[in-house]
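hey so i finally got around to running the thing on that chain from the lab meeting. sorry it took forever, my laptop kept dying and i had to restart like 3 times. anyway pasting the input first so we r on the same page abt which one it is
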Amino acid sequence: MQDLNERVRLLRSVYNEVKAALPWLDASVWENDKISFEGFNQNIATPSVRAANLDLSLEGRLPILKNKIHILRFNPLNGPLDSFRNIFPEMSDNNIPLTILHTNIGFDDIRRFASENPRLKIILESGPRKILYAIKEIKNLLKQCDNVYLCTYNFCNWYGHEESCRIGLGNKLLFGSHMPEYIADASMGPVIISDLDWETKCDIAGNNLRRLLGITLLYPPEVKYKPVEAFVIDSHAHNLQYGNGDIYKMPTPDLKFQPSDWIQYMDLCSVDKMFLIPGEMLDNTAEGSVNYLKDVLDYREERFYFYEIFDPSGDHIHIEKLKISLQHPHCIGIKIHPTFHKTDADDDSYESVYRIAEELNKPIMTHSWGISSYNHEQYRSHPDRFRRYLKNFRKNPFILGHAGGRPSSFEATLAVCRDFSNVYVDLAGDYYNNGLIDILASRIGAGRILFASDVNWMDTRCNLAPVLASGLSDKDVLKILRLNALKIFRDGI
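ok and heres what got predicted. didnt touch it at all, straight out
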């Protein structure tokens, strides 16, 4: 068995070797974007295309500008798409694709526009909202429109790259990072840490985009990704039962999983243990989490643990069932979700769960998030709203899942950690802002950060890669990837 320190070193080494070998070409660098964590962010390190906003002043000038502009971006503030119809033939003639954010135009409108301009190459890119939930529409769009492609910035659907290749859409994936505001490794991870063949990895990394632009393809010598013996603890994950496709807004791979498929994926990511929250439990806490985990626990019980869900609207029967479930040897703590349950985190109904956690010596992990302009329920889980109970319950570990979720709540997250020594954060979710991990370690210490992925919602590799690529020492990375979880959950795993 490899020493834990050696496993960290090897995992970072093999990741960086494959990363350095692939022919990256970034379709999505937004140089003028504000950087949330300046001073902790990584610089743009891979080749990228030059982009400009679609503007009427460009008409008739593209043959001259094509060596300076590789991609044009649609900005609704400059006018509707139809107002630029005279420019589209010029773009087609000069191999200049058009990027459209998925939040700017409806999918039916993009489909219609693509059919009306069949020679124009169109790149669909994630807007500020998740493309996660729109993956069915996106796949249909890519299948139906030969001239539509997908930028992989924020394409964090679990096994999304593999599934796209399986259904014949691998040639439609264009690597994009949205650097410098977001870290490139969140988009690189699913390509690097995969069993995709080398040619496919090279195509997604840059050659698909090179084909669009009419420039030379690059296929460097292959460097294989070799998983390291599993040691990572994923402290915030989800699962669904085989065939339960009506629970989420999007399909997830585990709807067709056998327990062996879970182990295969975990081994690919060097994940030793997962702490699961069954998706079914968010809607119905009556059954208890363990009832949705029997297959994986029977198969490899040492690899899986679970949180029990507390429902603030539950009655005394719910409370009694919760207490019983918390005594299961594989139950490592309690999950609360003020946003999903539409109950403010400082509501009176939560007092009982804090008392139960203290009585049974169980950590609490919560969904936490910033104020959202498009999901107004998120205010219920703002980090400041947990202060009411943290003041009185300081004994057991309390974990802010998603580390506050967005930069808008970052200072509040830090303040809560500063004021309450039992508070930790985890890295679950699509919080891919450049420098996040480094600044968290600098401000609260690496010993208070837990690795977490939010699989099956997200792809583990999108969260793992930024940790491996961070500026932290191997010692601190080991804390985040494993040791902190062992410390917090020492009585349960």
